[in-house]
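anyone seen this seq b4? input:
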Amino acid sequence: MTPLQPSRWTIPNTGRPLPAFGFGCAALGNLYAAVSDADAAATLSAAWQNGIAYFDTAPYYGHGLSEERLGRFLKSGAAPHAIVSTKVGRSLRPVGDGVRPDTGFVNAAPFDPYFDYSSDAVLRQIEGSLARLGHDRLDIVFVHDIGARTHGPEHKAMFTAALKGAFPALAELRSQGVIGAIGIGVNEVEVCIETMAHVRLDAILLAGRYTLLDQSALPELLPCCERDNVAVIVGGPFNSGVLADGRHYDYAEVPAAIAERAARLRAVCAEHGVPLTAAALHFPLLYPAIVSVIPGARTAREVTANAADMAAPPPASLWNALRAEGLIAP
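predicted toks r here
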């Protein structure tokens, strides 16, 4: 299988090149809308057939459902040597006949996800992920959703627990060869910088903070990552869908100002014969520290459209026009 773009980064301790484009599996956990098992399998198959060989998931996505579906696909042998990343930080508690919590995942698996960054919990979380995925090792593991925006007044306690528990536990698993690389998977810029002051990270999975609509990672974080050789993977390049004609921006309704900005972006892209989705996928890779972009998809049609966009880099004239219009940072 030929990758869509050359790799920019080799995963430490594995020797495996990370593809420049991957697949984010949150939608396969029924984010916002239910996806059937058959459609999930077809979507994963379409990704592999279109040259996408990196899959990112998490126990939180569908409360285990995303990992289970990806695991069934991988165990079928349909995607030999696929690269997989997942996350720790949330444990899954069975709800039995109780009410499933509303986390945005429709018809999620019958578990209640709760935060636990302790060493023992993280080891159990990894054990659960390996079982659902049908693997005996993982290429990358991210500590999931640490940060003040996520935890509010509990941030300091949660962050301290991760420093004392999650990161040392992952480092030990890395030394045993169970994990290749260690990082954090977040939606917040500030906690990336905070974590880098305490932990030697291999990678950061940053969702929504270096896109055509939000370049808040640029002033401080990305130069720090470039200096410290921390690879950055960009998740949510469509900002929850608004850059792909979706109805969400950062997991909520699209504000009027964002809708207007997206329309301006679309108009400039159209003048250069470039779909807005293609511009959204390729834009993050203009920055050297960014090694991969991982959009999600709900259907085989969506993932095939993403792959076509991935295979067609926009001309430099587009970026120059967007800068001239003040739509991307100079």
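The CA atoms of residues 203 and 231 lie 4 Å apart. The chain is about 35% helix and 20% strand. kinda curious what u guys think
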